[in-house]
Amino acid sequence: MADFQQRDPLSPAFWDERFERRFTPWDHGGVPQALRDFAATSAPLVTLIPGCGSAYELAFLARRGWNATAIDFSPAAVAQGRQAAGAHAARVVEADFFAWQPAVPLQLIYERAFLCAMPRAMWPRVAARWAQLLAPGALLAGYFFFDDAPKGPPFGISRAQLDELLRADFDCIVDDAVSDSIPVFAGKERWMVWRRR
Ligand SMILES: C[S@@+](CC[C@H](N)C(=O)[O-])C[C@H]1O[C@@H](n2cnc3c(N)ncnc32)[C@H](O)[C@@H]1O
Fold first, then answer.
1. 114 C-alpha vs ligand 1 centroid, how far in Å?
2. d(CA 107, CA 67)
3. What is the pTM of this model?
4. How far is the CA of 51 from the centre of ligand 1 (A)?
5. Domains contained in the chain, CATH given
6. Residues 56-68: pLDDT tens digits?
């Protein structure tokens, strides 16, 4: 594996270094199928994509008339995300998920490789922020990575841990297998939709 200077995934510099050196093994290279299926059957939702990275999903949703915003705290990720977003580049914003404030109430937070980018000790803060940003009835939908390897990122979760993390504020309404995983997540991720209680 490449020898990186930055070791702390809580620092934007960690992600900058990897984007700049084009070491992005989590990158799907496009819009994953379950999100396509979800968007095909949903009315447009006010959506946040936290830790968006390459942000392929932003243009996909914006083209369908969704009010979507993608945020990332890594300037290199934002630059890459803006490139992929094309005409919608202004909707890719450099911001820290824990500080960013929505201009209008969110109806959906899209999760992909953001929770698993965080050391496990951060997970309660992520879950609390999801709950804070979503009003009752709003959705948290996306890909959740299940694994128990001690080192990461990606840091996997167990189903019991995820239930424990979200139980207080969310109900799980969809839990599906994923058909188009890339190698790092293959056999270990599920498409899930959680509704804010
Ligand atoms: C593993 S990458 C996933 C990127 C993208 N979601 C994807 O599916 O390709 C994790 C991303 O989260 C971003 N990130 C980590 N902590 C963040 C924070 N507190 N606020 C905003 N972005 C953050 C990183 O900069 C990185 O781009």
1. 5
2. 10
3. 0.98
4. 3
5. 12-17+34-196 (3.40.50.150)
6. 999 999 999 999 9
